[in-house]
């Protein structure tokens, strides 16, 4: 395993002593023992990183290089990273309890894939165009947005850093990344790889820390854009602060997605897919399909199949290859999720399996829990639980199913399960969410991803993801312009 303790921060591309002695201790959610620590970045560290990023952007070589030159650096980073994906996955599992199978595929391998997919998108991206305007030739150029502050949560830490840092770097921005305090060590290892890649001075910083560190970054006048992933509550606050300064902001926020099971669905196939779509990463996924909508006619069959699947889930050591459900990231999350289970019971839903007691003596585990007989006004149907808890709701007809699915403040994801894919598209068109699945729900990281309503503003992945890190500059000319160089 990697060295798990760091004494310095990665500021402007160099390891530097932190401004204060404040440290972050990472506790294993499985053993409840410390596994390592890093410095916690203070406002003074944020200031140093933003100044370095500002200088790199205003006067340094990075934004003035060709896109190809910047892509070559990202390719180098991807090659370095690819040699370590299994070890990176194991580190993430140790830090935050994601089952090893998910850490490998959904986190570390997904992080490398995103670097490559961004490179593919960048090759076809219209960085500079010539257009014919009202008065003659016009150049439309996509210029880097400037200094970017990237703030991410702990649930899929490396997978969330990449769709911010990589397109921003390719576009020519300089970036200050703030990982969550629960997962600072994997970020520090990424910083080692960034150091080895040798980006120009000031271009990248990685500053682990909590709310104050993030707040200092959001408020810093030297930052041009904040790209945030996290809860809707924090996102709302960040958008307000950015609004005061007219800072660009994109937000990837929470979800409470509905899986609509139509009467013609193959229930075994549906439940097999929902095992991942609803419970991946111990239920700590923004896109988790946590409201299961079914008609009275198929209700009992669906409950039997879901209960069978959930009773078979292996709950235990996340480092074990066979584990389906590991511990939640922190004791506060365990207590919070158990509080939601209690609220379901108190509000009158029927608990089919699960419960509030911890399934193991040690570690922040929660019993996989299934509710039915719920209404869409209950907290377990309205609020993002972020644990292995599913709520089944019944609908009277398809219109009712669509109404219930849309009766939420969120709009991130959703799915429909049916033997008629064409009809699935009709349902998708009625649902107010940024992504949707027919007989599956899996992120396609080459396609735009983001939220309607309180689930966010902006899109990640693909060409749309690159567009979050550029400003459009239009240049008119009295004289004919030369063609764009190949
Ligand atoms: P959170 O909002 O509490 O924290 C997210 C990040 O913001 C952390 O790095 C935190 O330190 C930082 N932060 C907190 N307060 C801040 C402030 N005032 N200013 C600046 N930064 C601040 O979120 P969480 O509970 O740690 O993460 C889980 C949430 O993230 C869930 O709601 C989940 O749905 C959401 N999420 C969304 C997506 C998506 O792509 N839409 C992906 C993963 C997670």
TrEMBL record:
Q: Keyword NAD: yes or no?
A: no
The name on file for this protein is: aldehyde dehydrogenase (NAD(+))
Gene Ontology terms for molecular function: aldehyde dehydrogenase (NAD+) activity
Residue ranges of every copy of the Aldehyde dehydrogenase domain listed in the record: 15-474
Q: Which reaction equation describes what this protein catalyses?
A: an aldehyde + NAD(+) + H2O = a carboxylate + NADH + 2 H(+)
Return the PROSITE patterns for the record. Answer: ALDEHYDE_DEHYDR_CYS, ALDEHYDE_DEHYDR_GLU
UniProt xrefs under InterPro entries: Ald_DH/histidinol_DH, Ald_DH_C, Ald_DH_CS_CYS, Ald_DH_CS_GLU, Ald_DH_N, Aldehyde_DH_dom
* Keywords assigned by UniProt, alphabetized: Oxidoreductase
> Where in the sequence is the active site?
252
Domain of life, per lineage? Bacteria
Q: Which family does it belong to?
A: Belongs to the aldehyde dehydrogenase family.
């Amino acid at each position: 395993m990697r060295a798990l303790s760091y004494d310095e921060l990665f500021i402007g591309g160099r390891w530097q002593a932190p401004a204060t002695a404040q440290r972050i201790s990472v506790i294993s959610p499985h053993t409840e023992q410390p596994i390592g620590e890093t410095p916690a970045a203070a406002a003074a560290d944020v200031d140093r990183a933003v100044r370095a990023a500002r200088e790199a952007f205003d006067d340094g070589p990075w934004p003035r290089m060709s896109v190809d030159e910047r892509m070559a650096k990202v390719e180098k980073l991807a090659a370095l990273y690819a040699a370590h994906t299994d070890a990176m996955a194991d580190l993430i599992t140790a830090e935050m309890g994601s089952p090893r199978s998910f850490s490998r595929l959904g986190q570390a391998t997904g992080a490398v894939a995103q670097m490559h997919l961004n490179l593919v998108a960048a090759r076809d991206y219209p960085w500079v165009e010539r257009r014919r305007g009202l008065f003659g030739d016009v150049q439309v150029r996509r210029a880097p947005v400037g200094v970017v502050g990237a703030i991410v949560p702990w649930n899929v830490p490396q997978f969330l850093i990449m769709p911010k840092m990589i397109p921003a770097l390719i576009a020519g921005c300089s970036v200050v990344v703030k990982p969550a305090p629960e997962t600072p060590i994997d970020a520090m290892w990424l910083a080692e790889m960034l150091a080895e890649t040798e980006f120009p001075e000031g271009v990248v910083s990685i500053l682990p820390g909590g709310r104050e560190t993030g707040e200092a970054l959001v408020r810093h006048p030297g930052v041009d854009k904040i790209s945030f992933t996290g809860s809707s509550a924090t996102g709302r606050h960040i958008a307000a602060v950015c609004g005061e300064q007219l800072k660009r902001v994109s937000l990837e926020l929470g979800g409470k997605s509905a899986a609509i099971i139509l009467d013609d669905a193959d229930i075994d196939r549906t439940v097999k897919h929902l095992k991942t779509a609803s419970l991946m990463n111990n239920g700590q996924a923004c896109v988790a399909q946590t409201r299961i909508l079914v008609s009275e006619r198929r209700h009992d069959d669906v409950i039997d199949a879901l209960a069978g699947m959930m009773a078979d889930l292996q709950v235990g050591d996340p480092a074990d290859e066979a584990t389906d459900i590991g511990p939640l990231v922190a004791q506060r999350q365990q207590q919070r999720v158990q509080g939601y289970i209690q609220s379901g019971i108190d509000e009158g839903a029927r608990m089919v399996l699960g419960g509030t007691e911890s399934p193991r003596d040690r570690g922040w585990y929660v019993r996989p829990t299934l509710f039915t007989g719920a209404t869409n006004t209950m907290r377990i149907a309205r609020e993002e639980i972020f644990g292995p808890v599913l709520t089944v709701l019944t609908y009277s007809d398809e219109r009712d199913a669509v109404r219930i699915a849309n009766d939420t403040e969120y709009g991130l994801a959703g799915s429909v399960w049916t033997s008629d894919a064409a009809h699935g598209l009709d349902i998708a068109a009625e649902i107010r969410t940024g992504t949707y699945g027919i007989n599956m729900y899996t992120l396609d990281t080459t396609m735009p991803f983001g939220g309607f309503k309180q689930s966010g503003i902006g899109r990640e992945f693909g060409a749309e993801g690159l567009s979050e890190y550029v400003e459009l500059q239009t240049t008119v000319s009295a004289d004919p312009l030369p063609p764009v160089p190949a």
